[in-house]
Design a protein that fits this description.
This protein has no helices and eleven strands. With 115 residues, the protein is mainly β.
């Protein structure tokens, strides 16, 4: 089993920054995909960014140039640095991990950007 624990959400003014973290534990393959999704009220969950252990990083067009995803494989930890935040970035952000064909999700962390 895999556990994902997110941290770092909160309230920030437009133009500000936040850094999210996701710590993974349990049975995790060396080759996996980690990523961040978000879900705003009344909207579908959408991919923000994904970072496989092998392959290129992928960003949603709406966050390119503002968000940076990274990971520390030794610690099984993933980060999302969010800069130049906009009110439309307000959502619950979920950590995601795919390993050995199974998908796991964190509990979510709220990010609120005030105008």
């Amino acid at each position: 089993q895999v556990q994902l624990v997110e941290s770092g959400g909160g309230l920030v003014q437009a133009g500000g920054s936040l850094r999210l973290s996701c710590a993974a534990s349990g049975s995790i393959s060396v080759f996996n995909i980690m990523g961040w999704y978000r879900q705003a009220p009344g909207k579908q969950r959408e991919l923000v960014a994904a970072i496989p252990t092998v392959s290129r990083v992928n960003y949603a067009d709406s966050v390119k140039g503002r968000f940076t995803i990274s990971r520390d494989n030794a610690k099984n930890t993933m980060y999302l640095q969010m800069n130049s935040l906009k009110p439309e970035d307000t959502a619950v952000y979920y950590c995601y991990l795919r390993t050995r064909g199974d998908d796991f999700w964190g509990q979510g962390t709220q990010v609120t950007v005030s105008s």
